[in-house]
Structures are given as C-alpha cells and as structure tokens.
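A quick aside before the break. I want you to see a complete sequence-to-structure record at least once, exactly as it would be stored in a machine-readable document. Don't worry about memorizing anything.
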Amino acid sequence: MSGVRVRGIYATALTERLREAFDVVQASPPIRRRFDAEFAGEEYDASVRTTDDRQGVGVVGDPELVESVAADLADAGLDAFRWTDPAPREAVFDGVVTEELGGGAVLDLGEREGYLPYGRVDRRIHEGDRVRVQVHEPAPPWTDRRPELGTEIQVLGGVASLSRGVDGVVASGDEATRTELARTTEMLPTDPPDEWGVRWEYAAADAGLDAMDDALSRALDRAEAVDAGLADAPAGPDATAEASVPRRLLAPSATEWVWFGRESRFGLDADRRAVTATMPGHHRVKAAHESASAAVDFVEDLGTGFGDADEFPTGAALRQFGPSEGDRLAIRHGKPDGRCFSLGRGEVTACEPEEGKVTVRRELSGGGTYDALGTPRESGDAAVTKFREGRWWYPTAYRSAEGESKGTYVNVCTPVELFPEAARYVDLHVDVVKYPDGTVERVDDDELDAAVADGAVPDALAEKARSVAASVERALA
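That is the input. The structure line, written in tokens, reads:
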C-alpha cells in the first residue's frame, strides 16, 4: 500500500480513517502510543498536514494518491470542502513580477499569485521581470497568504530531499545526528545524484539503512523526472515568448486542500473516539486556538471517560476562549470555490455563552446600496448581525443613524463556528431578504445552481441549503 504521513490536530482521527486503505508512516510518538502499533519509518508518498489556522488540512504528494486521500477526507461531513491547488508544491513556473514588497516580490503564476522572498533569488528583481521559480510552500485558498516560492529547484520528501545545483550532504537535527547521517550516506547502495545535493530530514534519524536507501532512490527518480521536464522547457523565462508567460512548466506533485466545517469536525471526533478518549467537540475546540488545543489534551489525559456523550460544551468553549462582550469580532465569509474574505470587524454587543449566541454591531460608511435589498447605504448606518453556533443561517439587520430599518439580509451558510477572533462559515449562495416594507424574498438560487453545476457545491449540501432557505422564508413571511 502507498505510504501516507499525517501531522497536526486531526492526526489521530485521520490516521483511523486512512490506515485500512493506506500505510500510515512516520507516525508521531502520540499516534504510536494511542494505536499501540508499529508504524514504518519509510518515505511517504503523500503527506497530510493540518493548516496553520487549524481549519483544515493540505494533502501533498503523488497526484493519484493525493486525489484518493483528499476524496476520503472530504467525506468527513456534509460541510467539508475540497479544492485542487493550481500552484502545488514542487510545481515550476515562469512567473512575472507584479509587485515589489519590503521582503520579497509578488509573482503572477497564472491562476495564482506567489511570494518570492528576496533571499531566495540570486539577483535583483523588479516589476515586469520574468523569473523561473518553484513552489516550496503552498498556501490554502481560504487564507491571505500566497504560496512561497524559491528559485532553487528541489525534490521534497519526509526522509530525503534533494536540491538542484547544490553539492554535498546536509542533515536536520543536532550536530551528532547530522554527522552520523552524513557518514551513513556513504554506506548506501544508491549514490547521491550528480548536480543534486542531499538533505536528510528529521525522520531520517529514525529510519533504517534500507528505508534511507529507498528514500534516496525514490528522490533520485523524481529528480531525474524533473531534469527531463525542464530539459524540454526553454533555458529560462527570458527565452520564452512574451505571450506564454506566466506559465506552469511542470508539476511532479499535487496539492489538495480540505476545509472542515463544524459538522465535519464532529464526524472526526467520532473517528478519534474509536481510538482513544475524546471529549465532545474535541476538534471544534482545538481549531479555535492553540491554548484551547493544550487544554483539550490536558482534560483528556486526566483519563475521565466521556462515554457516548456527543453534546458540544458550547458555553464552556465560549466562556474560556471567547468571543466575549466588548471584543472585536471579524466575520470570515468563505466561498465554495475556496476563497475567504472578511466582511469587516464589529463590536460584540451581547454574548450568551450557554446558548452559543453572539451579537455583532458594525458601523458602516456610505456609498452604494445593500446587496439584494436595494436600499441606500449611508454614513452612520449600522449592521447588527446575530450569530448562533451551529446554525445554518444568520441574519443581519441594517439600520439608519436614526434607527430606521433598511432591511434584513439572512445568509444561508454552513454551520457557524464562533472562534475567539472570528465567526467562520462557508456561504451557500442562496439567501433570504426582508425589505423595509416587510416583503420577504428568496434570492440567488441561480448562483447555487451554477455552483452545483460547476462542482463547487455537492448535491446533498445544496439540498440542505435550499431546505434551510425555505424554512427561513416561511418564518419571516
């Protein structure tokens, strides 16, 4: 079976989900302890890693395996979303510099932008320059980060990595480990490739000679494929016709992203509970904040059983980690195509932790009209939004400076999650509006239909959205 490495706050649940169909390798000590099993230390074919914001995972590696693993993870719940990254890790592009920033440059890669730190390019670059780059660190589509680029061509692995045009052998770890791994390289049947330098990763310290040799051999095969792919490309971006830049030259690996919604996190709780004691809402709480993650680990390590309890402790989570009255809360508005942007920040004017309710008030500037409502947006207007944890919709009431109603907009979305600094969800297009005169109308069904046709919204999730919209429309009428 193909080898998959799993890291991050979802590791136990995802190991349980994946281990029957795939070989889980390079397991962390907590995973080995919880499963009471031996896990090979060999090179992985795909890696699953929790994103920095803890909202989901990235899957990178062999394209066919990545597709299979991501499809499995996207089945965690109705509100899980999956996207294929057009700028996957290890992809090589001829990009165009579009903006010069303090520490690096923004490059147009075609379907995405990338960020090239000045320390990763050996010449001065300016707007309009064309540069050949590789994606070293991809970025989830729902974050504000751009994929991080470099001009050094690499083959990245969990045991052995290679760097083109670099001589020698380097290793991760302390000095003694680095020295031992460098010496061990000379004993391996596979010789380091010409014109490629070897970097032994941390996992190499726990790998046997056979696993190290296999990892180096596999890295060499991939390096040869990269060399062959670049041999067919122009010598450099300057040799490429103007009209063909930016362009992707090759993508030996794939990257897919899976975002977990509230229901999906509860589904992963069930997977984890099959392995070890798991409190209700384990992944929902861990996704909120790093300190929340440590608190969950402490409670579960006390050894108190949670039985079959499945009620999320909403009140405790909001009391301990917020948001609280007086806080500033952002509204992170996700889209089914993977984008996510802020609708602004507002003051939490009311909070009922036990009920999972939060009211947010935003002061608005003038100009234009309110979406779907058509009423003018004027300076001094206020938007009052009422969120409830786990609800598939939320209302925003717009009022003038004098307190007169300018209408109410009800957004239908995946179940709302109230994190310390932001309310998060994915918009499901269809919405319901109530005009100042009391008329109620359901809008944007056509956008939902189009998203289903494009494959951005699964049929089952679309049906849920339509059902929610119908219920809201009846309630407001």
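Two observations worth writing down. The domain at 321-476 is CATH 2.40.380.10 (FomD barrel-like fold). The longest strand covers residues 340-352. We'll return to this after the break.
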